[in-house]
Amino acid sequence: MNEKLFREIMEINPIYARPGENTEAPRFKMPTDAMLPETAYQIVHDESMMDGNARLNLATFVSTWMDERADKLYREAFDKNAIDKDEYPETARIETYCWTMLADLWHAPKPKETIGCSTTGSSEACMLGGLALKRRWQEKRKAEGKPIDKPNLVMSSAVQVCWKKFCNYFDVEPRYVPISLEHKVLDGYELEKYVDENTIGVVAIMGVTYTGMYEPVDKIAKVLDGIQEKTGLDIQIHVDAASGGMIAPFLQPDNVWDFRLERVASINTSGHKYGLVYPGLGWVVWRDCQSLPDSLIFKVSYLGGTMPTFALNFSRPGAQILLQYWAFLRYGFEGYKKVQGATSDVARYLANEIKKIGPFELWNDASDIPVFAWMMKKDQKHNWGLYDLSDRLRMKGWLIPAYPMPTNLTDLTVQRIVVRNGLGMDLADQLINDMKTEVAYLEKLDQPLPENHRSGFHH
Ligand SMILES: Cc1ncc(COP(=O)(O)O)c(C=O)c1O
After folding, report:
1. Known PANTHER family for this protein (predicted)?
2. What is the Å distance from ligand 1's center to 282 Cα?
């Protein structure tokens, strides 16, 4: 933290401080005395007011708007603790409805015989999916009298950071298959070089964070079928469908990526992304109860009754579960299809308009999830780059990050737009107008801008 920018003592605006109240408070120490609730409210309200405008944030996947009926439900439920299933049995029941609906949406052979749970987001859901893969591999190897000290997980070099965390925190060797201009996603190419008897599973992504592209899960499964025929290795897939899990069923129903493929053991999604719920909510569902080893489930009795739990957290908010149920009831299949379809139309329109501006080449065209990335055309000389464009657009309030691609492609910078519900065609036109103005400004530079602080990829 740059201390020069932060005053140690916060001055309380005399308009807010009531007679007899302190007019100062320390910033890095808990104040000694209490203050009136109105004064504390005003300080927090004012300090957080300078956060960005979420509607202009085209960097995040996370929902920032829900209908006022959902807001009402949220207010009614913000005190519910999801873990306290004895106190809130209805919320627990509703959680089961939600993941059973997801199991059905993702074509589980017997949705009512699957097992799943809610989480704080896809990161936790991925950890649980990864842990189940690891434990199943361990139990099988132990039964065969084989060593279990070198588990590895195979995935694209463009995985979201949660998979790197999983491998780091749970002692699993990450094996990254590098993406390239020829293989823009993990597509099964040379997979046999990465898997072996210590592979606990393969991660396939439906909606790569860097670009929004789908990985062809059916193709990956076929390559694994071939590997099994040759070597006997039976390797399962976890699908990280953080975004695509709530897009593909509605917009690309013929894409076979889910439990229709026998090799898919588990799937996660973020309720708070295209599930259209406020943060933080994720879901993970296993194909059947055998896919989630019983040895991972804890039974706790502190809250009354005996509750099975498989989660990294204990207490966490339960309100989002009710909001997800509200969204499922409110939109239904056809409603989700319409909302996601409208979002996808805007994304494809934006991709096409950005391509027409001139200096850019699209990495992808938003035909998977409503997310796309572009790069500067090769062999053209400019005094500016995508980082400069990102800075210029930020001055107008738009948050559109530029970042390097992962290992093997780190020389390539891309810029990405995530379109969410709420970015309509009017706002899209405004963005294109702003982009054209800023590109024209940058094109007039007769020398490069001073190098700015270049941030890495913010997932
Ligand atoms: C593919 C993928 N997996 C996992 C995550 C982590 O999701 P969450 O933010 O819900 O923890 C993301 C977030 O962008 C993602 O894109």
Report:
1. GLUTAMATE DECARBOXYLASE (PTHR43321)
2. 9
Nearest Cα neighbor of 319 from 263, 266, 281, 375 is 281
- Residues 167-218: tens digit of each pLDDT: 999 999 999 999 999 999 999 999 999 999 999 999 999 999 999 999 999 9
Give distance in angstroms: CA of 27 to centre of ligand 1. 33
Q: Is the pTM of this model over 0.90?
A: yes
Q: Which ligand 1 atom sits closest to the C-alpha of 206?
A: 1
Ligand 1 atom nearest residue 243's Cα: 16
| Residue 92 and residue 9 in one domain | no
- Is residue 11 situated within a structural domain? yes
At residue 8, the pLDDT reads 83
**What's the pLDDT at 299?**
79
Same domain, yes or no: 105 and 130: yes
Query: H or E element: which one contains 374?
Result: strand 371-376
Closest Cα to residue 296, out of 104, 117, 94? Answer: 117
Which band of pLDDT confidence, cut at 50, 70 and 90, is reported for residue 13? Answer: confident
List of residues 6+ apart from 67 with CB closer than 8 A: 330
Beta-carbon count within 10 A of 281 CB: 29
- Pick from 405, 403, 402: which is nearest to 391 by CA? 402
| Same domain for 323 and 223 | yes
Please count the structural domains in the chain.
3
- My answer on whether 303 and 389 are in the same domain is no
CB of residue 406 inside a 6 A radius of ligand 1: no
Instruction: Check pocket membership of 120 for ligand 1, CB cut-off 6 A.
Output: no
Q: Is residue 56 part of a domain?
A: no
Question: Would you say the CB of residue 66 lies under 6 angstroms from ligand 1?
Answer: no
Ligand 1 pocket, residue 240 CB under 6 Å: yes
Same domain membership, residue 92 and residue 47: no
Indicate which atom in ligand 1 lies nearest the CA of residue 159: 1
369 lines ligand 1 (CB under 6 A): no
Helices (H) then strands (E): counts for the chain: 10, 15
> 160 with 271, same domain?
yes
Task: Give 399-414 pLDDT, tens digit per residue.
Answer: 999 999 998 899 999 9
Q: What is the mean pLDDT of residues 16-42?
A: 84
Percent above pLDDT 90 for the chain: 76
The answer to whether residue 427 sits within a structural domain is yes
Q: Are 196 and 141 in contact (CB under 8 A)?
A: no
Q: Is the beta carbon of 130 within 6 A of some atom in ligand 1?
A: no
What whole-number distance in Å separates Cα of residue 226 and Cα of residue 219? Answer: 11
275 in ligand 1 pocket by Cβ < 6 Å?
Answer: no
Position in ligand 1 atom list of the atom nearest CA 124: 11
Checking if the pLDDT of 433 tops 60, the result is yes
Q: Which of 140-144, 177-181, 345-349, 407-411 is least confident?
A: 407-411
Domain containing residue 45: 3-51
